[in-house]
Amino acid sequence: MHNYDPASFHTAIEGKLKRKHRTTLEEATDKEIYYSIASIIQDLVMPKWFETNQEIQQNKSKQVYYISMEFLIGRLIESNLQNCGLLDICNQTLLDLGRRPERIYEQEHDAALGNGGLGRLAACFLDSIASLGYAGHGSGIRYRYGLFEQRIIHGNQVELPDYWLKEEYPWETRKPDEAVEIRFGGTVHEHKRRDGSLEISYENTDSVMAVPYDVPVLGYHNEVVNTLRLWSAELSPAENKGLSASDQQYYHHLDHIHSIEQISGFLYPDDSTFEGKELRLKQQYFLVSATIKNIIANFRRNHDLPLSMMPEYTVIQINDTHPSLAVPELMRILMDEEGYGWEKAWQITTNLLAYTNHTTLSEALEKWPVSMIQNLLPRLYMIIHEINERFCEQIYTTHPELRDKIHELAIISYEQIHMAHLAIVGSFSVNGVAKIHTEILKNKEMKNFYTLYPKKFNNKTNGITHRRWLQQVNPCLASKITDVIGPRWVHEPHKLMNLLRYTNDAPFLETMKDCKQHSKHLLAKYVYEQQGVKLNTDSIFDVQIKRLHEYKRQLMNVFHIIYLYNELKDNPNMDITPRTFIFAAKAAPSYHLAKEVIKLIHHVASVVNNDPDIKDKLKVVFLENYNVSLAEKIIPAAEVSEQISTASKEASGTGNMKMMMNGAITCGTLDGANIEIRDFVGDDNIFIFGLTAEQVLDYYAHGGYDAKSIYHADVRVKRVLDQLNGGVFGSQEIEFKDLFYNIMYHNDPFFVLKDFGPYVETHEMIDRAYRDQNHWQRMAATNIAHSGKFSSDRTIMEYVSDIWKL
Ligand code: GL9
């Protein structure tokens, strides 16, 4: 994509600094250099972006639109440099200039337009779609505030606003000419035309402009540039009445502007819990309506065909139920604005939409009150109502065996709208994100829907982009891999399998270990700079990084640490392999128990890290403000990957894949994609423990298990729990009674005590295994070799061949 060599790149930066910042290479700040590099990339990207769009138009190729409320893209500078083949040149140039590349790259604000796995998956998918050369676009919201920034004050999480747009974002291009109008509220009027068709008109609606901001998505070394379109809510010109400060209506008007801009104001910070706020519903409709209008406009620009032909050229993937208003919105446009009858509109709609389910947690399922949808989206409500009527009637006539299940399957029941039901009924494909998750959908959560529509259900096990999560974040390991198996794995990640030939190759295992040590030193340096804690880089780096949630069981990890601490206090000469436990996690601001766990980790850390008896054998660190950039620092240094969710709860997980790809060994339950990781690497190269999903679901069906009996029977457990309740960790005022009560009197809903014994024993095995470094490195190499299966390139190829048919 470029003709730069280090000398001309140097000149280019110099030119940008002079023209855009009126400064010199010597005097420029890191930020000015960052903006100059970003601008050089944008100059290269723009013509390719234009050409990619031209090509799509001329070839009339089928396109996929990925609608998502979240795109957790993180920083783009390094991956953009890498994908257009400039990373090495840029790094060299910066070093020659006496600048540290990482200092320059970290000038970019980490774009946190997502909560966790679901949003990061969307970002990995965009990378793979472009790198594989498919025509695919993301459509999301340009939140002015991303996910909150986390600070820890006296062990407590404090949330700060993430105003990421306070400085110019160099990757976006505003496209005001492609803005569309979105309407909310008001009343609907139906007039019957002479031919019997309905004419719909609205009165007293509020109108908002959705203005697109486009971010380029670069394919890897293939000149393809796709688009991530982020919509921003602005005052519509019709409503801008040009009031002056003396008008009576002035403050009313300001208030109105504010409420409109709020629609793209901030990202809701809940991971896997449904918050039925009206503003969130507005955000969802805003995204869906803007996207669909845009898709129709694109179709009209590219083809001279009726909209009934759209499914041949377009497919829309909805990321969870958040965009499931796409079903009634498409129906509305096709019927009310394009004149199609119900049957034809329904056929078009259901041939365009495909739905991905990301969780079976009941608290995550979206159910909007009928009254809220009626008020905010009166016409959509009428359509949802009709979809529901027809759906229930269809079950009654075609599936008599399901008649007594109609109330469970209905889209509207008990004054609530079940968005998952709407999404399933309104789309041609429903997929889960790992084998076990899809099986649970088919056989349990969505069982009756599976009976109705067996052909809709399919599995697409998640993946991650190996370009970011191996090549970019771990250049040392990436180059050593290329040294032995050649560079083809970058284009064809399954070729990582060729590493299996080197799992007994002592020199290769030694270089792998060197890379790991190098990454551990870098992380230790960061930890020291951040919090003044010195890590023992000869200890096992044991990592649990993900959102803080009860089902992910960070608490079980902490209980194990407390147990180890107790053992060492009883017997300071105990022979254990030194360990460093590394945590990073944000808790949803209103999630009390999750915040208690963060506090507990800090209190355990301060006791353990400051106890002279413990020496270098145990360290606990919690790294503040977990985000994509922090994950990029931690993952290359991880040796043990904690994937310890209560079986059946973690739909897939993707951190598990990122860490195995960097040579960490998984310590995990038989949940989500852990199962497929085990199937690939084999039992000898993973540490599996605990209840199976089947056992967990069986316990739930019978009212749980008896947590108190374990407390009384297992002295290790009793000691840990009593320490929680007795002020051992922290002062007397800071007791962890709520955590204690949740286990003892709410009967340990996530089976922490039940799996504790097997978890401890598994860690004893890890301790012993690590002592044989040759064996450990062999396990690591085996994991890396199999990780190619978890590249999002593989996932996207499956979406393309089974669902999208591009
Ligand atoms: C999640 C699942 O919990 C994860 O197991 C899964 O890997 C990802 C991606 O499919 O989706 N579903 C979900 O709601 N979240 C997930 O991480 N949470 C958010 O990120 C909002």
TrEMBL record:
Q: Say which enzyme class the record assigns.
A: transferase
PROSITE patterns xrefs: PHOSPHORYLASE
Keyword rRNA-binding tagged:
no
Q: Which residues carry this modification: N6-(pyridoxal phosphate)lysine?
A: 658
Q: Which reaction does it catalyse?
A: [(1->4)-alpha-D-glucosyl](n) + phosphate = [(1->4)-alpha-D-glucosyl](n-1) + alpha-D-glucose 1-phosphate
One Pfam family name from the record? Phosphorylase
GO biological process entries: glycogen catabolic process
Single GO cellular component term: cytoplasm
Similarity comment: family membership: Belongs to the glycogen phosphorylase family.
Q: What is this protein called?
A: Alpha-1,4 glucan phosphorylase
